[in-house]
Structures
1.
Amino acid sequence: MRHLAPAALHRITTRIFEAVGTPEDIASDVADVLVDNHLAGHDSHGVLRIAQYLQWIREGRIVPHARPEVLVDTSSTALVRGHMGFGQSVALVATDLATAKAKRNGVAAVSVVDLGHTGRLGAFTERAARQGVVMFMTVGSGGPAMTVPFGGAEPSLGTNPIAFSLPRGSQDPVTLDYATSAIANGKLMLARAKGEPVPEGSIVDREGAPTTDPEDYFAGGHLLPFGGHKGYALAVIADLLAGPLAGADSYSGAVMETGVFMFAVASDAFRPERDYLRAMDAVTARITGVPPAPGFDDVLLPGEPEARTHRARLNDGIPLPEETLAELTQIAADLGLDIDALDVPLPSGGGTPTRRQ
Amino acid sequence: MRHLAPAALHRITTRIFEAVGTPEDIASDVADVLVDNHLAGHDSHGVLRIAQYLQWIREGRIVPHARPEVLVDTSSTALVRGHMGFGQSVALVATDLATAKAKRNGVAAVSVVDLGHTGRLGAFTERAARQGVVMFMTVGSGGPAMTVPFGGAEPSLGTNPIAFSLPRGSQDPVTLDYATSAIANGKLMLARAKGEPVPEGSIVDREGAPTTDPEDYFAGGHLLPFGGHKGYALAVIADLLAGPLAGADSYSGAVMETGVFMFAVASDAFRPERDYLRAMDAVTARITGVPPAPGFDDVLLPGEPEARTHRARLNDGIPLPEETLAELTQIAADLGLDIDALDVPLPSGGGTPTRRQ
């Protein structure tokens, strides 16, 4: 495990995407989001994705130089077409548009269509929240069906993620950010490797029958929505908002038939911001101010684990396994970049990013 | 069990509330919602509540003649103060305001404060959906804490319900409508009576330790959010939207310190309605078009069980236990109303409401 300074990881990520024809501002947007995901502890949405994105660029599934076009632009709504640009960059543009409209008019709804993979939604909703705007976001299931509907024997849903963030002034936002399926692929692989069962209600076997044996999943089984019929309902709503409402299927050129739906409300839409913030302090203190259950140290707010990881990694650097760093170095070398000249390595436990002398 | 015509149940409900000083239009609004809840099969949010509401009127917790006041009214936002009027009536006014704004400007956010108990949220979100508007709604926890946060040993949340409805033209809307707690009180009482365990992850005992024994709940235990940490996050978001964002705590006269937050988007905000409806048909057919799992007849959309019950009860009448009907008759008699003269009883299985000759 090596620890990299966030700025160094940002630099190498930007350079790699620039080397395949991405304008610097777009490459930097993508790097912003990938590094933010690492800082939040969601390494599966970080530089591990670079090889896949480069592959998608070669296949035309991401157009690195594409710039989003705003097709509808009213005082409180916008429809953004990404022309298959990087999902991270297109979604940042849409986030900032929704944020600006909400700050001006109290509320906004934005649809985004024809864009690449966005990754972790919290990166966008938290960006809005840090500007004083409550944001909700969902992404449709463009990919193969993986999740069975409640009462179904075969999959018909994606992982249909949703996110909500609410501002807390200078404190970290409260953020809900998750797939509506019960378990992540990574956790299934881990349980399989350890020979351990997964929690009840996470998966079904290939016949659609409930199981807790991860082997059943890898033998043709499927994911369940989290929380039974309640999570199923949420998965459906996410699918419908990002699909039929956002309207991604109207753009036949889109390679990923998936859309993004965002709504945004200014935190001072209904009363002065100081009253909102005071109430946020009071209510969040009430929610978390109970004794922990056996086996827990604390009651945490949604998003608090990520915020803690963010603070720790800003200080200690982002830990990357040797094999990930080797892959990154190889990708860079293949593109004619010298990763060492970019000052990527940082001593484990080091504080601030290294600077070139 | 007796079956009453919806119109008859509406009439007696309206007359009872009129008899305690409620203007006819408000009494009729309240009856609309209570009868709609029965039609949806949610009898716990129907006429069973009348005795409690009359008690609350006597205590000043509902002001039957109060009319809502619109304190903020912009093109896309509104803040409605209920002056402790019936929650059902105030929320209907707010729903129609949000619907009208969304139809005019694409999107709306509405906060409602200082109102009585609203009951089932789907009654409001479906009303918006039947007018072509996607609606999200949440109600804050004004009452005592009943639900423990994830990792907590004592309760700090309410049951924090949320609802989403999306229109489907002349078909029933897709509706998510539930408490973010894992189990309803009624189901706990039923399990206790049968001596059966409740599903894992529903309740904790008085020490905050997980249990499936309903006796542990009635011995000082508490509810869990549905779906573990994911449902907990949703409960917190619901609490914060309807609380700090909606701003109910700014109205010190309010007896119930709970607010309502609504978000509305026109279904044609991003493309022509016919394209939206076509995509809704396609996506809902894809989601439900898989074989059912063992033990299930069908894969249903969220809200479909309620819609089926609605159709059946429109035809067969609303079943009420004899004791509920006796209580209703007594309440009416105490107010000087002759329930029989109101044509309440309807032969079981009868079709249309009886009419006075």
2.
Amino acid sequence: MSDPILSASLVARFAEIVGERHALVAEADIAPFVSERRGLFGGRTSLVLRPGSVEEVSRILALASETGTPVVPQGGNTGLVGGQTPDMSGGQVVLSLSRLDRIREVDVASNTMTVEAGVVLQRAQEAADAAGRLFPLSLASQGTAQIGGNLSSNAGGTGVLAYGNARELCLGVEVVLPTGEVFDDLRKLKKDNTGYDLKNLFVGAEGTLGIITAAVLKLFPKPKGREVAWIGLQSPEAALALFALASDRAGSGLTAFELCARIAVDFSVRHIPGIVAPLASEHPWLVLMEISSGRSAEDARALIEEVLAEGIEGELADNAVIAQNLSQADAFWAVREAMSEAQKPEGVSIKHDISVPVASIPDFIHEAGAAVLQAAPGARLVTFGHMGDGNLHYNISQPEGMEEQAFLARYREVNDIVHGVVRRFGGSISAEHGIGRMKRDELIATAPPVATDLMRRIKASFDPAGIMNPGKVI
Amino acid sequence: MSDPILSASLVARFAEIVGERHALVAEADIAPFVSERRGLFGGRTSLVLRPGSVEEVSRILALASETGTPVVPQGGNTGLVGGQTPDMSGGQVVLSLSRLDRIREVDVASNTMTVEAGVVLQRAQEAADAAGRLFPLSLASQGTAQIGGNLSSNAGGTGVLAYGNARELCLGVEVVLPTGEVFDDLRKLKKDNTGYDLKNLFVGAEGTLGIITAAVLKLFPKPKGREVAWIGLQSPEAALALFALASDRAGSGLTAFELCARIAVDFSVRHIPGIVAPLASEHPWLVLMEISSGRSAEDARALIEEVLAEGIEGELADNAVIAQNLSQADAFWAVREAMSEAQKPEGVSIKHDISVPVASIPDFIHEAGAAVLQAAPGARLVTFGHMGDGNLHYNISQPEGMEEQAFLARYREVNDIVHGVVRRFGGSISAEHGIGRMKRDELIATAPPVATDLMRRIKASFDPAGIMNPGKVI
């Protein structure tokens, strides 16, 4: 390792703010903060700061501004696009929000909860549940991911269909600006038209404009009934028709509609212990559908049975099975949640997090599939995702028997093919994971210059010294 | 009138873009564009441009930028805060979006509609209806207000409780920037995390950052049943408890919950022809509640009956009457919709468009009422509004027999009293009408400097020449 870029005196000044104990300088202590779990976006630093209060965050950023020191905010370090780790320069300080983990308030009457950035998502869900409410943001990484990161990346997940993404679940934010000033906008208001929408700029900015230190989150009534079914069908077109039917019958009671290619289910069953095939019969496509009712368990049951009966009668669905109890419902969801993990034993994969208009999902699947297979014969299209949101995790496992590196060498080429199809449908190359480091160059290369120019102007006006998470987003 | 600030040659250059016919210069033609219907925020200009295409809007703004000519975008001219009219200088060109009135597409399968800025809201509703869908934005001025203005002011109205405000109903925008560049972000995506949220900056910016020329709007399934009831009750506290009960039972099927002081209902009945008292009995407070069902008319009926029965049994409500048919439902709504108009024959009023957390509505009503009556004894508190959104039109009619000017002289003082109480509850002084000219000074004086500073930075970076609707918002 070369000499650290951060001088000893600067490290000492930062450490003084949080106290020695919370300024990590030993390589072993730093290690968990400079890589992420897939090992894709590693970096270096000689300082990780773990402030314990908003005031400490403020003092850190004021010092960073004064000294021109870049700061990388980090939550649960579960991001998938490298937004939360430092670069290889060694000159970026990591600021972990983990110690800002207070649930400041649960306001049952206003259906809001005010939490700090470092609160783990699952803890926020549990606090809402204990108050008789639902906080519907739900992700595979919820046991580790933190609210600050969820908001900074505008997280999606499986609850978006009925409740919206992280942006829509947030009423107000508290943000420390690059200067150290605190922007306190922790409002519980459903309506507020006093000037520009600053909240939505910080949400989704991946820590490049300031650091979200707390937020007011929306709570919802807990559903009184929830029913989950796996459904076998012949095509994405049938799934789209079934989605339209279910939306019509259940309205906002349709709380999940996940489309999965058969191979995605097969991988889960084959590789993940305890995962059981949801349907005895074989179908090229499967849908995991969840219907909830605010009225009663019986109501949810009657509604899902009605949708499935109509779907089968209308020849949209071949077959379906409804979970008979809570543990079976969890087992049904486990099949879906295991899909990402289950691709690993099948070799390397080239991944995409795309969205298109919901009605274009079938055409996208056909066009992208044909284009990928022409370029990479034998590649396995492990298509699954949140069809109701128009969002697919369009993941492509390597052909069987191919050298891993040979397939990975084509990552960019396959990305370009898939993203080209996405663009033809007016879609997004980052539906829910963000831009981070991974997609920054592609965003700049392919977004309309007028859009990236506006983003650069915002960045320059909010963070003129360029200390906030440089190298990410824009 | 003094010599026009806009030179003849400049007027000619602008006129050449839209054609003589659509460049209004005669005083009589200009008159409707320089005042608004209440006559509060008049101004002057010697040129109103009515472009017929996005390209013409682009050329106008390019010329405006080149020549430093301020431009005031205008839709249906129904705004309530003076955001859409020019100042008294005579040097601001009015740009009317009325001719950009194409409904470009209704995409039933994706539940979206792409419309131009000049489409009148009611026409957008009707186009959605004709396609078997609901566009839920609903305002008293919907027969005149245009989509561009609705989005620029982030309009609220009666559909917010279940469907959100204009911001939440908009998936994508097309915007002409001050330079004339076109930012085309007309996406139909529910999820898109590619960089900063530019859409939500333009929505609600009241034309100060650019001109929205088209938008992608969300559509929803049409409810299959809709039931409306007037309910008599004793207090705002009882209304809050009833709201909690109705939310719990009906969830997103609770599509309106409007709280009205008895005097507001009395004014409507007294002054507006055809308005009939909704309840025979007398109650200090009334609620207009609407429950919709995506399933059936019977379902909506059963649900509203259940809520009312429980509310009356639990002594939250004294009495209630459900509309027996569509025309009675319309008549029920008419009582509510007439309230603003019905204040006029009672003399002048001092108005507020405020929001507080829903749970704080009762305390707000008591505290604000006490403070206002102490300062202005005999003032009549004509409180009504969207309680379910925490949003009240807190309008105060003058004491009976008082000189109008004597009451109006106290406008600012009473505003300050009410807004002071709003701030104590963490509320907003502009819940749904925006800032415009009316509340600009107050926003700047009372918002945290860190917030107004960020807004100024955005304004300066998007519109460095300051040509976009100057004097509004910030």
